[in-house]
């Protein structure tokens, strides 16, 4: 059964820049070689600056080589280049030969080795955007999605080749679309979405295309390139590669300068500021400050380096939330979360989902009633101030202010690392607040939240782990009680919405019984064990408490538990 | 570096020509020209004519003015020093003239309280942190300024004016703010320390006023040093607990702005809060005391706020709560002391070991 969703007003958007050669990302890939060179140079300078003595420099190179060799021994991936062992092996030998040499020679050699390392890293990281492959991918995606949709939904012979449904019917885009399109023309957009599923990057890619925006670049986990379908899509969409196994200083610096220089050059970017997918299912609370600080640094550099008289290109931060009824990886994510919480142990990145699982999921997704919605937030400057429709920063009273002034000390733009660290912290708080206020509550989030909290309330003495092991006979909620609690929480959600603190889907309104039914039908819809069901007596039960907890967490942080 | 020296010529703004404001203006005038803002045009006229304010002879480099926009326009660094009750409205007036490059270092020790419609501070039972703000939080709510700092510590105006040795803390999240404040204020008699827990430092400066009133009361009763030692140390514990409940870290309370300020204020008959306590113990009523003094004792309002926050966050705060009864519920100082001496509590210090912040 489908509860009527408000008439989908998603429309087709014209591209803001018609020709691909005008796109910043294309410019970047056309000059790929120079760009890699530039990034390597910057990273090299930075590392050398922070390692003033020869000994420190040699130590750094040695540590890096050692860690890389360890990585290759323990954890090699399909995507890793074949010449890797040779490269690091050679470096190792040259390092060993170095120990007997005089200091001056050591310094020179160490610098050379470091430069070789960062150059290699820059090459590994760099994306490879190809216009032709981009166009092809776009068409393939559109064609197959349309086939899937129509074949699955219209159960008539030949429906496979009709175009009655498009992705637009499945994926709703709400929020400040128009502003986003203007900002992408006025300046450089850094989109910061919440991160729940590996599907996010593909979804975002599709959204950016369908909003008529030029391709954005983004850092995708190298592990995703192990999955062939993903690798193809991402290579052609402008992804650069982030290898989370590499935690050494030269790699991290190179990565930082890669993303920063790209933003500075005007390439629209996507950062997932939560770092990895949210394990608990809650909206990100603690953001990775590294990427955010590099946007602030990029903006400051633009203020310092743009020649006088020329307009300074402004960087806009656009928070985005992705709202799902169902997250493919939910059961595994929450298991990881719980075991980490329970024992505080290291969690390896792992993916159990190959191409086949993905296609299966997509098919299910299109055949059954499950929608995705994407909320585009209001644009911010790098300080977290709202910007107006032409990109001017506004203070709380709506007065136009200069972002440049935040970097000014005694009349000049200055570099102050500590100041910018503080700004980064402020920006991150602002983004978290924005996430919560543009988050779109679905019926499935409501029922999951209410059910879990009711169980918690019935067993106040149990901690989380005790609650998750609740005996089966206690895992029943009377429908009438559940219904009343849903109503109270929904009312509070309305109230929060009127204060601008959250958003909700239109399907949340109306007859509460229908809303609950819609919620129950959709929450974690494709999991083998459903997190929430109605039993034969019409009461509420769960088959998977952990996953229920996961979907419940989506509404964490709004203090809704007071209304249970 | 021509632009730097140009910038060094910019005057420093002091907003609020009260007692402390005048002293700070004089301290700053040792380094730079100072614009001293006063709300009342007559006060401005009088200051510029007599070169004197609140008993302080003003440095020739201090110029009084009534033009807030001009102060904001000509100065990059501003020191707002006005009573907490007027602080928010002042920030609203100032806000249109401020830019993100402005640095604000305030010297106000008090709370800002914003209540739900129809409530007053007396009618409301409990106060939570969304209603009670420190001055730095008010600045950030009302203006575009982010580089904000606060001046705290044992700063008895008269001693500072006479050039006795003293010290202050400048607390800010920004090293830049601390460095500028230090450059402007430090001299051979005056040491400047930095602290990055601005809210903790503000809370310490505010909450110590409660203990100062109590110290005055003890003194008024004619009790000696043992009693005062007891009060200061127990008062300290209470400040730490309340301060932590309101978002400060323990460390701020152990520094110059905490212990330093507390000991000073509790030993000084120069302090307004101390005087209020003293007169209470002599049997005067609060309303009479308030009528006979022109400067505001921030501590009285703070007692109300602190007591109601302690209720909200379930903090054990016997001194604050008893003092509240003395001030507003007609308990006598004698009765209050009897009660406190019977208070069942026998652990001396228990906040250091469990402190993880």
Summarize the structure.
Chain A has 20 helices and 16 strands. With 564 residues, chain A is α/β, with parallel strands linked by helices.
Keywords summarizing the entry:
heterodimer, A: 564 residues, alpha/beta, 7-stranded mixed β-sheet, 3-stranded antiparallel β-sheet, disordered N terminus, B: 357 residues, Rossmann fold, N-(1-d-carboxylethyl)-l-norvaline Dehydrogenase, domain 2, 8-stranded mixed β-sheet, two-stranded antiparallel sheet, 12 strands
Give the topology.
The complex is a heterodimer of chains A (564) and B (357).
Chain A: H1 24-30, H2 32-50, H3 54-74, H4 84-98, H5 103-125, H6 131-153, H7 167-170, E1 171-175, H8 177-186, E2 188-193, H9 200-210, E3 217-221, H10 228-237, E4 239-242, H11 249-264, E5 269-270, H12 289-305, E6 315-324, H13 330-343, H14 355-367, E7 372-376, E8 393-394, E9 400-401, E10 408-409, E11 412-413, H15 417-438, E12 440-441, H16 443-458, H17 464-468, E13 476-477, H18 479-498, E14 503-504, H19 512-522, E15 533-534, E16 540-541, H20 545-553
Parallel strand pairs in A: 1-7, 2-5, 2-6, 3-4, 3-5, 12-14
Antiparallel strand pairs in A: 6-7, 8-9, 10-11, 13-16, 15-16
Helix pairs in contact in A: 2-5, 2-11, 3-4, 3-5, 5-11, 6-10, 6-14, 11-12, 12-15, 13-20, 16-18, 16-19, 16-20
Chain B: H1 2-8, E1 12-15, H2 19-29, E2 34-37, H3 41-50, E3 52-53, E4 56-57, E5 62-65, H4 68-74, E6 77-80, H5 84-94, E7 103-106, E8 112-113, E9 132-133, H6 135-142, E10 147-152, H7 157-161, E11 166-172, H8 175-185, E12 190-195, H9 198-220, H10 225-245, H11 250-254, H12 256-266, H13 272-281, H14 286-291, H15 298-313, H16 318-328, H17 333-342
Parallel strand pairs in B: 1-2, 1-6, 2-5, 6-7, 7-10, 11-12
Antiparallel strand pairs in B: 3-4, 8-9, 10-11
Helix pairs in contact in B: 5-6, 9-10, 9-12, 9-13, 9-15, 15-16, 16-17
